[in-house]
Design brief:
The structure is a homodimer. Chain A is an alpha/beta fold. Chain A has 15 helices and 9 strands. A 7-stranded parallel sheet of chain A has the order 3-2-4-1-5-6-9, with helices on both faces. In chain A, strands 7-8 form a two-stranded antiparallel sheet. The radius of gyration of chain A is 22 Å and the shape is globular. The termini of chain A are far apart. At the A-B interface, helix 3, helix 6, helix 8, helix 9 and strand 8 of A face helix 3, helix 6, helix 8, helix 9 and strand 8 of B.
Amino acid sequence: MASVQDVLSGNRLSLARLLSQIENDTSAGRAALSDLFPHTGNAHLIGVTGAPGTGKSSLVNQLAHYYRHPPENLSPKSVAIVAIDPSSPFSGGAVLGDRVRMRDLAGDPGVFIRSMASRGSLGGLARTTSGVVQAFDATGYEVVLIETVGAGQAEVDIARLAHTTLVVEAPGLGDDIQAIKAGILEIADILVVNKADRPGVENTERALRNMLNLAHPIKRVYRHHGTLEVVPSAIAVPTESESIWIPAIQKTVATDGTGIQELGDLITQHKEHLENTGDWESRERTRLSAELDDLLHAALVSCWEDTLPAGRYQEVFDQLIERVISPRQAVNALLNGTQDK
Amino acid sequence: MASVQDVLSGNRLSLARLLSQIENDTSAGRAALSDLFPHTGNAHLIGVTGAPGTGKSSLVNQLAHYYRHPPENLSPKSVAIVAIDPSSPFSGGAVLGDRVRMRDLAGDPGVFIRSMASRGSLGGLARTTSGVVQAFDATGYEVVLIETVGAGQAEVDIARLAHTTLVVEAPGLGDDIQAIKAGILEIADILVVNKADRPGVENTERALRNMLNLAHPIKRVYRHHGTLEVVPSAIAVPTESESIWIPAIQKTVATDGTGIQELGDLITQHKEHLENTGDWESRERTRLSAELDDLLHAALVSCWEDTLPAGRYQEVFDQLIERVISPRQAVNALLNGTQDK
């Protein structure tokens, strides 16, 4: 097992080994995460999500390049990329085929790229991604880019890890269908229209702008004790006097770098907005609260299962299947031996 | 409160009142559900899911009409429609505007239509939908059509309620984008290409057929103790000798009834397949198991919260926010007073 000291001192091989421990949820990985946790809280976590075909991976590469080789007035930042390839439950294969990264990133000691597979368990993916991101944060990576396919609740959960969330769209991919993926759009801090050199870019931009106009005031989904709640951001943002961040729209062409510097500027503006309004802290609280509740629920179920007499669950379940007792009566029977309604 | 006897004797007003109690999760509603539960297990639950614009509601109306006025060799069946309008977290309004139902359905005593709003809590929606469906089942409705917008995990959960799941597509809605919604497609027992009189129908059908070919052997997502697991249907189906149901594709034009009788035939064939293979029972088990686990988890969290000293959660959470303890140490502190890793 890689020592936490080796990881904190910047040993890449130790870090890679630790990431595997975290991904496999080993006890050593869990212990290391507890040791690393006090060192977290410094990285800027940037989520990048969008459908396949939007050029999301190229965009992430360009952003990494931007942070490594920024405009003259800025200093370079170290960058970690967490690329999540959800194995499609339908095809059994990876949705994303192209994991080939730009050559200058691969040779750069200030860049660390980690691809993760989902292995079929959506909740588990959010949990291990959180651990991997914490490891990068503790190790001193200043920017962590978290790349997910925007296709469902799991991606929304993962995007909720981030301080700044980019939702990537592209022309010609069926805008009205994409637009209904409200769960993804409403988490966007910045909407990126990539492949902006393609026909139809005006339509995509107009559709997004219409969505944004519809969405005023913007709402956010918060997780509290394991349930999802929709809260107008006017409530979620603590002080009345604070300004509301209206999601920006930025056109890019990731293949040639067009719009990347402007996108980098917008990301910096969003970070400053978060810091100036207290939203940075409130997002940290939301994130840690969600993580705590998730771990708590898993632990509660696990504890309860440990105390259950062998065969008891099956016995009650059989009565349920026979419709002798109702689901709520089954819960009561399992929790306290009674079958009250 | 409507009496369970009134509901069972077919009093529509009592049923409507009970459905409201169930939707509001009142104690009277819970008690009534336990009384009704022994009477459930007879209805054929048919899920109908698809993106807005696919003509899903018209299709559901036509199917209801088909069951009320079947071909000569079949007898009419009573039909309940549960239409779920998820309030979009983005726009704050209903995604579906058109809840107007055909006139002959509205005046038919053998038809009961219930629209439900999601009210922001996804888990809660699946729970109350399950209750509403049980009420219809217990009251003797022979077919329950459950209509949802296919847009995320909640819809997958709701579709899992059904014995037979129809996924509705339509030409010209961005097939490659729809195709990636694997979570929806892989729950389909029958794929309906509605609006089949429109241009592009061959492309939609071809795209769906390609997806189906990719997906051999078909996989299904099962929920076990609150986590999602992907299981090849070859494992999920109990006996080796049993035939596998390959999702059928049916073209329809819901506005004029084209293909509805053929779709009705396919639904009957699927029901017979389920009954002949033992899949009917295994779907019942999966469904009741998921419902039991869901209720159990909610009850476990609620019990634990009741025993927690006031202020304890906040105290531990504050230490977490200050990064004095890690998330797992916080869980240990909340569950048993220690802060071991």
